[in-house]
Amino acid sequence: MKEVQVINIRGGRILDETTDAQGRLADIHIAGGVITEVVDAGSKLPKADIDLDATNCFVSPGFVDLHVHLREPGREESETIETGSRAAALGGFTAVVAMPNTEPSQDSRIVVEFVRAQGERAGLCEVIPSACITVGRAGQALAPYGELRDAGVTLFTDDGNGVQDPLLMRRALEYARDLDITLAQHCEVSSLTVGAVMHEGSCCSHLGLPGWPAIAEELMVHRDIELVRLTGSRIHFLHLSTERSVEMVRHAKAEGLPITAEATPHHFTLTDEALRSFDPVFKVNPPLRTPADIAALKEGLRDGTIDAIATDHAPHASHLKEQPLDQAPPGMLGLETALSLSLSELNMDAQAVVAALSWKPARIAGVGDRHGRPVAVGESANLAIFDPTCEWVVDRDVLASKSKNTPYHGRTVCGKVRHTVFSGQVVVRDGVAQR
User: Fold this and answer.
1) How many CA atoms lie within 13 Å of 326's alpha carbon, on the beta-carbon side?
2) How distant, in Å, are the alpha carbons of 189, 244, 260, 263, 282 from that of 215?
3) Phi and psi at residue 75, in whole multiples of 5°?
4) What stretch of H or E contains 277?
5) Residue 56 — φ and ψ, nearest 5°?
6) 394 Cβ neighbours under 8 A, 6+ residues apart
7) Backbone angles phi, psi at 53, to 5 degrees
8) Could you tell me if 128 and 98 are in contact, meaning their C-beta atoms sit under 8 angstroms apart?
9) Is the pLDDT confidence value at 1 over 70?
10) Position 325 pLDDT exceeds 90
11) Which CA distances in Å does 178 have to 12, 175, 182, 234?
């Protein structure tokens, strides 16, 4: 049974979908897991067990990450649901969608329910299990969508693999339409990326490394846009990374097709030039691209073509990531640095950044009834309180993840989560996880 906390948040600026970009100075009272009072700053509030100082901070709805790898079950050496949830809470996330490439895969009710139960046990954020599009993510047979939908799954993906067979993808979209679920596609034509370790371009040629062409992503983006046009089903594109992908999605959305998309902080902050070091920490799937691609992703986020910022948080134990570049698995940490990198690198105001981190992904994930909500009386107390001007230096040795594979070690960034409130409980206070 959770401890009932009565909380006052004082001196912050509410920043949500209903405010302007400057926010609104207010004090907040929370009891029974919900916001019970929002008053002018300095007004009298009922007594509370916990007083949170939000001076110089924004108080926003908690963030929702559409794309995290928590590794449990099966690869707990790299991360567990508890350690990943702690990293999420420290990053201001009150909900995360757990990708299904676990061992065993999340293609059955029993595994999905295990993941959800582990998240509830940790109690640091809501862990939302996704499920596979195909059994074992093998691209051969569709997963049991009805059974998994009955288990509460609304987002299905084979992330790490793209569904290669267009007929199978068409059938998947047709079932998804009828069941009112969303398919999230990892866009990669795998026959074009065999052996590839980085973006195919001038840097790749200079280094003599096998290249990963942009067209491998773009062909599948184009195919699935046309399949959406045919079926009327909605689709979410994971971790877009190229200029042409963004442009295709922009045109498709202008036509009114039910398409959403995400971009990761590493894809809009790092280029393929980072691989000149041959350091596997910069190896990721899809690969880091060019400055032109970064500019397109940033513009896509600014104009709403790209709906959400998602981390693709992908922890790997040190002995795995320290292998030679061609053998090391792709992936980077992302949960604790997402807000800071977004505020530091995107030419967007804090409200636009929070929209892409909070209420927009909450709706895509199907949790908009409790996450990403306005900071108002009667709403669930899922909140992130962050200082947008706080500078700090990323240190892999103090991050909460079980793994250390951040490409931002030693980088100075701006914007820091001070407190996180999840389901009416203070899970982060003054930058320190409370459990």
Assistant:
1) 10
2) 8, 9, 20, 17, 21
3) -130, 50
4) none
5) 65, 15
6) 337, 340, 406, 408, 409, 410, 411, 412, 413
7) -85, 120
8) yes
9) no
10) yes
11) 44, 5, 11, 11
How far apart CA 100 and CA 115 sit, in angstroms, is: 10
312 is catalytic: yes
Residue among 89, 183, 103, 193 at smallest CA distance from 145: 183
Q: How many residues does the chain have?
A: 435
Domains 7-59+377-388+411-433 and 62-365 share a fold: no
Q: Would the CA dihedral through 42, 47, 53, 58 be positive or negative?
A: negative
- Residue among 340, 403, 364 at smallest CA distance from 80: 403
Q: Domains of the chain: which residue ranges?
A: 7-59+377-388+411-433, 62-365
Q: What percent of the chain has pLDDT over 90?
A: 97
Over residues 300-315, the mean pLDDT reads 98
The phi and psi torsions of 243 (rounded to 5 degrees) equal -60, -45
Q: Measure the CA dihedral 146/150/155/160, to 10°.
A: -70
CATH top class, domain 62-365: alpha beta
d(CA 350, CA 286): 27
DSSP string, 67-130: EE---TTT-TTT--HHHHHHHHHHTTEEEEEEPS-SSS-S-SHHHHHHHHHHHHHH-SSEEEE-
pLDDT for 216 equals 98
- For residues 14 and 8, the answer to whether their CB atoms sit within 8 Å is no
Which among 303, 312, 349, 395 is annotated as catalytic?
312
User: Residue holding tokens 């940490």?
Assistant: 333
Please say if the pLDDT value at position 306 is more than 80: yes
State how far the Cα of 148 lies from the Cα of 130, in Å rounded to an integer: 9
Backbone angles phi, psi at 168, to 5 degrees: -65, -40
Distances (CA, A) of 368 to 152, 162, 358, 417: 14, 27, 9, 22
Tens-digit pLDDT profile for residues 233-251: 999 999 999 999 999 999 9
Q: What is the CATH number of domain 7-59+377-388+411-433?
A: 2.30.40.10
The phi-psi region of residue 336 (left if phi > 0; otherwise alpha if psi is between -120 and 50; otherwise beta) is alpha
Is the link from the previous residue into 61 a cis peptide, with omega within 30 of 0?
A: no
Residue 3 scores a pLDDT above 80: no
Helix H, strand E, coil C: the string for 369-415 is: CCCCCCCCCCCECCEEEEEEEEEEECCCCCCCCCCCCCCCCCCEEEE
Q: Please provide the DSSP assignment of 117-179 as one string.
A: HHHHHH-SSEEEE-B-SBGGG-SSSB--HHHHHHTT--EEE-TTS----HHHHHHHHHHHHHH
Structure tokens at 280: 């596997």
Whether the per-residue pLDDT at 420 is higher than 60: the answer is: yes
